[in-house]
Amino acid sequence: MAEQSTPEAPAPGTPSLRPSPKPSSEPVPSRTISRRQLLGTAGATGLALGAVGGAAGYAAAPPADQATPLSSVGADQAMFHGKHQAGITTALQARGHLVAFDLAAGAGRKEATALLRRWSETARRLMAGEAATQDDTDVARDAGPSSLTVTFGFGHSFFARTGLEKQRPDSLDPLPDFSSDHLDKARSNGDLWVQIGANDALVAFHALRAVQKDAGGAARVRWQMNGFNRSPGATAHPMTARNLMGQIDGTRNPKPDDTDFDERIFVPASGSGDPEWMANGSYAVVRRIRMLLDDWEKLSLKDQEDVIGRKKSNGAPLTGGGETAEPDLEKTDADDRLVIPINAHARITRPDQNGGAAMLRRPFSFHDGFDADGLPDAGLLFVCWQADPLRGFVPVQRKLDRGDALSKFIRHESSGLFAVPGGAAEGEYVGQRLLEG
Fold first, then answer.
1. pLDDT value at position 69?
2. For the chain, how many structural domains are there in total?
3. Would you please indicate which residues are annotated as catalytic (active-site) residues?
4. Which is nearest to 77 in space by CA: 42, 33, 122?
5. 200: left (phi over 0), alpha (psi -120 to 50) or beta
6. CA distance linking residue 103 with residue 404, whole number of Å
């Protein structure tokens, strides 16, 4: 998982960036607003910010001596337009929604094209901290962009529904069955997939509601899941996130500054065998993984660490060093037993143990209450990104399926695979090269 930045706590009296859907007819005086005045304490945190362009166009600035700076969390903005869609390499966000849609009966390519146009414009506006184009619900009023991202993808079934079968990538073929799967088909796959993330729960819900309303009569919700991560600034310093088992999760994630990052995560512009419309895109594998927390929490600390192969306290390999130290897979203890057990999760998932298979994991935790037996319905909304799922997710999952010690404590309950095209250029909508190609 990508490490999170640690912005300072929100300042009281944060000014509104989102206007009312029905603005006053009174003229708004023009005033120049500096980046320092707008972002306040954000500059000291090292965040990559870009809120000025989205905010200054429609939020009048108070006089400098009366201005209350926008908090760093609210000011953080992801860009809608770009080479890749936002929400892939964006730092983990505090709140997330995953939602799949099926096209309505009778809807086809024409309706899908209009829908992606609407969704793209809504995403562009909301990611800039603006109100929705029409019928804004005001849910996110007073908040800045809050690192909102809205990411769109296409499922295997989308292409038959729209007469675009010849444009369907081979990499989108259905995932193989795994013996540990207990999949609910009603909560798996879908024609269209939307991932929403933000560092404010109301901003994230606002986007979810806007996307669902935009679907209109063209598509209906197939399934929807809600997730969360630790809030930015909750730890004393940036660190890899923890999952609901209390384990640091994501230590060996590929990093954007790795020399081979792009070739592992994104589809190249040529030479990949994928259709041209997927250039600079990626493939998302989505799995709802329930954690059997009551069983897990009965284990001793040592047994938990043996299952994972890492220290629970700091994520370091059991063979020593810090979190990022290379584990010594051959090291044995005084009784000549492997220090990192042969079926430890960390051993099985290492890229050098899987032919170099790599994927960028970017999950959310979830808790949906308790089941009929009083057990927590909680776990991980696993989302991973790769240039080719047959070389990324599949070989690793097959190996985990055969002997991962963690398998006794988790259950894969839903699954989906989606082709996520590259980002939209200025004046384009997401998926335009597919739908108009």
1. 55
2. 1
3. 249
4. 42
5. beta
6. 38
